[in-house]
Amino acid sequence: MDDARQAELVAERTFDGVDSIHGVAFDGQAVWFAHGARGDLLSVEPETGRVLRRLKAPAHAGVAFDGSHLWVVGGGKIRKVDPGTGAAVGEVPGFDATPVTGLAWADGALYAGVYRQRKILKIDPERGTVLRTLVSDRLVTGVTWADGDLWHGAMREEGGPPSELRRVDALRGEVLDRLTLPEGVSLSGVEADSSGRLWCGDPATGKLRAVKRPRKAV
After folding, report:
1. Measured between alpha carbons, how far is residue 97 from residues 22, 56, 129, 212 in Å?
2. Is pLDDT above 80 for 113?
């Protein structure tokens, strides 16, 4: 495992009435997040933090975008949601999403961060079957893919090391890169955008922060 580096914070956004952020997603233009205390979905302009849309949807944890729809964790289910209306148009069958905190989409599959089990699950969205299990030594929060790399958030435990962003081997779970967040910063949803940033939700303050994503060594 590479030595940890200090995360470089490049943006911080706050929103009126938002005191807790959980899942985070990026649709190519806007950043979406689950407002955990209210259980709704917001989309915001990443450069300004301007709220673009607020949807009533069962959204309490992970959020992912598959190119046309949002996938949202809420009420023990992973639902497929229309980003225009907030209406559920499908769900992952037979899968208990109660312990899931993070969600990402890649190559037709969902990747779910399971917080206290310290795992990332690759899930078939059509059948609800678990295709792969990756194990971590930290509490797993948000998950995201960026340029073919799998990243996840590692939440600080009481008395433990600070929260981290980790790049891991998507087949074995080996940690390849670690970015340490400032002391005391909580970490929930994580999502990469198209501008080299990792957007991180804070469940304790409702702040949305962006961290510069490091370039991979060639």
Report:
1. 14, 19, 12, 30
2. yes
Map out the domains of the chain as residue ranges.
Answer: 5-212
CB 142 within 8 A of CB 62: yes
* Residue 38 CB partners (closer than 8 Å, separation 6+): none
Residues with Cβ < 8 Å from 48, sequence gap 6 or more?
none
3-state secondary structure of 172: coil
How far is C-alpha 78 from the geometric centre of its chain's CA atoms? 14
β-bridge pairing 51-55 and 119-123: unpaired
For the entire predicted model, the pTM comes to: 0.94
* Each residue's pLDDT tens digit, 159-201: 889 999 999 999 999 999 999 999 989 999 999 999 999 999 9
Residue 76 CA to residue 79 CA, distance in Å, equals 10
CATH code for the structural domain at 5-212 = 2.120.10.30
